[in-house]
Amino acid sequence: MASPTGHSYPPTLDAGLEKDRLSQTIKDWSIANGLAVRPPPALVGQNQDPEGILAINAPVTLFPSPFPKSCFDEAKAIQTSYNELYAQISQDEEFLGRLVQEVAGGDDFIAKLWDVHLKVKKEGYVQNLSLGLFRSDYMVHQDKAHLQIKQVEFNTIASSFGGLSAQTSLLHQHLAQTEYPLLNQPIPTNSLDLPTNNSAQGLAAGLHAAYKAYGKSTLGHPTCVIFLVQDGERNIFDQRHLEYALQESSVPVFRLPFSQVLTHTTLADSPSRQLLYHLPHNPNKTFEVAVAYLRAGYGPGDYPSPEAWEARHRIERSLTIACPTILTQLAGMKKVQQVLATPPTLASGPSTLGKFMPDPAKSSALWKTFTNIYPLDGESAAGKEARRLATDPVECQKYVMKPQREGGGNNFYRGAIPEQLKTVPEEHWNSFILMELITPPPLQNTILRQGKLEQGGVICELGVYGTCLWDQKTGEVKYNEEAGYLLRTKGDQSEEGGVAAGFGCMDSVALV
Ligand code: ADP
Ligand code: MG
């Protein structure tokens, strides 16, 4: 890839003083500006922060990584089409139900989510509006000299890092202004193309749009937005940045652990089933929840008991605008991405993408970002071919196999694929998908993680946020925006890239 400065990039730092100076600036700026996470217990010792007062730097690169401008512009430009596509998929209950049936045999979690949806459907949904805070993730794929973005996955629930990402862009802009020009191999002021990143504001604006669309309480309560969060969340400042941005527009926002939904909420005794939030510290105060934003509930770990499923059921059947609903969460299954992207030569019937996105210009722009993804069933041509690829010791080296899970750490890479399949009964192989590995161009950078510098080859993953509010009944899209970006970078030896899962770090783009 081209250098953003025309010279060797990132510049080599003098050992000692120069590295120390840059690290120190980043450490202080990060805490001063909330580019931070709560420390892992392993770092401070178990129960060593009983008052919950400690914060540490989020891992971050010393320099923004080079990223092709054409790829960046393309990813941003197609986001509203992606929003539209996933709004359409969320409305097709029959399609989602069919895919759920395909994976449910080997996937109890997906089966249970579907059951909650069916229960609410039977009784009748009272809220037709649905809010998506999405993130479409890509890597740059290098095919000879040609660079193109290829989609890694599409997130429809708890898409994180929009808060920290905006801060990371500001950090790198600050360093470009104050520190990089002073290096022994200086980067002159204003020579890097560092785009503004409105991810925190953009996501908050999506929540605000849903909050306004909900309207006033007919019960006379003030309305609010609730962030449903995990217990012991370490990535809390990421969420707080969104919360503060929303509060700037005078929207009442509360954080409620998902595990406490049953304790602190009730449904109004009315056919509309308003979701009421009773302030834990002041039981006389009740808010009506206009929007429930889930930063929890995306994986089996959030449902340790039947009560947790009851909590999800309460949200789903209430009048609150859920971000996301269960159908929208299920639209983010890797299985959906696979059905959209299965190579046309092997897929039976007309293109699924074309069905959801009839506009040929839009659908071909999205199609270009797909890489080959196969089902693993034993019947279809694509499934049979995938079974051959996944179990062949040489062929499997080009693939990653994924279950229907979110949050990192769930996938099987290369040689681990046939090993994993040996442990799963063949009739359940179809709960996984098989995806071609994307091979991004090699880059160098230095990561500052827990005060230590890690230098070497890195791989970058771009995420573009999108916000969409639509009506499930009429299909009307009421709000559809691209909402900033995330760049995550990991060492090129690591296969997983999640920052929260501990493998990746925050980064921003230097466009080339
Ligand atoms: P999750 O829902 O757990 O985030 P992902 O599909 O995003 O699952 O996969 C996790 C990580 O694995 C990604 O962030 C990326 O680093 C890597 N990865 C996933 N799919 C591919 C692929 N096709 N090619 C290369 N790396 C991939
Ligand atoms: Mg991911």
TrEMBL record:
Keyword flag NADP: no
Reactions accelerated catalytically: gamma-L-glutamyl-L-cysteine + glycine + ATP = glutathione + ADP + phosphate + H(+)
Pathway: Sulfur metabolism; glutathione biosynthesis; glutathione from L-cysteine and L-glutamate: step 2/2
UniProt remark on cofactor binding: Binds 1 Mg(2+) ion per subunit.
Domain of life of the organism encoding this protein: Eukaryota
Stored Gene3D superfamilies: 3.30.1490.50, 3.30.1490.80, ATP-grasp fold, B domain, Glutathione synthase, substrate-binding domain superfamily, eukaryotic, Glutathione Synthetase, Chain A, domain 3
InterPro entries for the chain: Glutathione_synthase, Glutathione_synthase_a-hlx, Glutathione_synthase_C_euk, Glutathione_synthase_N_euk, GSH-S_sub-bd_sf, GSH_synth_subst-bd, PreATP-grasp_dom_sf
Binding site for ATP: 153, 334, 402-411, 413, 435-438, 461, 490, 496
Keyword ATP-binding attributed: yes
Domain Glutathione synthase substrate-binding: 223-331
Keyword field: ATP-binding, Glutathione biosynthesis, Ligase, Magnesium, Metal-binding, Nucleotide-binding
One GO CC term, this protein: cytosol
Annotated Mg(2+) binding sites: 153, 155, 406
Positions of substrate binding: 135, 157-160, 233-235, 239, 295-298, 488, 499-500
Annotated PANTHER family: GLUTATHIONE SYNTHETASE (PTHR11130)
Quaternary assembly: Homodimer.
Family listed: Belongs to the eukaryotic GSH synthase family.
Protein's name in the database: Glutathione synthetase
Native source organism of the sequence: Triangularia verruculosa
